Amino acid sequence: MRTNQQEFDRAQQVLVGGVNSAVRAFRAVGGTPRFIDRAEGAYLWDVEGTRYIDYLGSWGPMIVGHSHPAVVERVRASAARGLSYGAPNVMETELAERISTLFSHVERLRFTSSGTEAAMSALRLARGATGRTKILKFEGCYHGTADSLLVKAGSGALAFGQPSSAGVPEDLARHTLIAQFNDLASVQALFAAHPGQIACVMVEPAAGNMNLILPEPGFLEGLRTVCSSDGALLIFDEVMTGFRVALGGMQQVSGVTPDLTAFGKVIGGGMPVGAIGGPASVMDMMAPLGPVYQAGTLSGNPIAMAAGLATLELISAPGFYETVSARLARLVAGLREAAQAEGVTFSAQSLGTMAGMYMMATPPRSYAQVMTQDVERFKRFYHRMLEAGVYFPPSPVEAFFFSSVHGDEEIDFTLDCARKAFKGL
Ligand SMILES: *Cc1c(COP(=O)(O)O)cnc(C)c1O
Description:
CATH topology of the largest domain: Aspartate Aminotransferase, domain 2
Strand content: 15-25%
Number of helices: 14
Order of helices and strands: HEEEHHEHEEEHEHEHEHEEHHHEEHHEEH
Distance between the termini: 33 Å
Largest sheet: 7 strands, mixed
CATH superfamily of the largest domain: Type I PLP-dependent aspartate aminotransferase-like (Major domain)
Bound molecules: pyridoxal-5'-phosphate
Mean pLDDT: 95
Number of strands: 16
């Protein structure tokens, strides 16, 4: 048997940093990434045979747990009929019909192979549809790795965007305007400075990539008003929140309807997927009907569609979200109590089937606030929990994820571990 460390050493010889997605390298928490051998239900097993309760859920998609028999069976049956056709299949239509029923503004969809592609294509569509160049996003919101979206604020809320990655030309980044989440005035100021020039506002309607940050009352409504009066499109990036916070995503929770929505994660049931949805009047600007080009070899491939359809059927069961949300709320309340008993400054909250925990007294409302938490304390907590067999996302600025197969046994075990981990933290 090889250890995680041996596998990590070996991987680093051929994979950049030993990984294929940067955050998997554990840089934010230190230590050795676990190399996963298999996953089932609420659990992961690493190559050393150690079992973990999984609160990563592959960063969101695994809402019915790993290897759910209904999902695996659907994928198996689909695989036997071919892995990819590069030609239309009926499951694409079926999955689109289901999503369209749940999201009122979605008349047309286009599937992609990742959330990154969905956000990137939504951006191009917004620019093509409005004939405008500038876009507005929020500091700390993540929309995948398209150049224009890998931009966050430098100093000063109203500055032009600075690239947060090497390789993004400043000529491109300067078209990305940065506002502050939960700060409508920062948005209004940018619209006042660039009237009629902003193609779209893209937002995670509940932010899940700077840990979980909830929109305050009026924030999303305010974005809707500003966009409508200026003629900019409002794009909700629901790659993470869609089918997570509720069956109808944050638009169901908030009652605010965007112009376009980006989907991903849960709609692929663990297979690579993304989608853009919106009214026909905007979506039909896309090729082959319109001038905005968009395509993908594996887009809408039968395996991803099969996994997505099976997952959506499971989560559409009556009471699914009520049950899973209530269990997660019990876990979150238990974590808060455990921290309080040991006098550790800590807060936690959940929304539907996703949650956030913070080494600070109250949940943050902005990127600036979440960055003030005690990161060293999080790292200690993280490793104590991992050693005890509980796998949270390896970063203090990530949300964590729950599933329908996380039951009382898993919650109680997690809380036992947490009570010990908070001691002397
Ligand atoms: C994960 C995520 C993306 C990117 O999706 P990928 O499938 O990783 O490319 C985009 N937006 C949000 C909000 C996400 O959480």
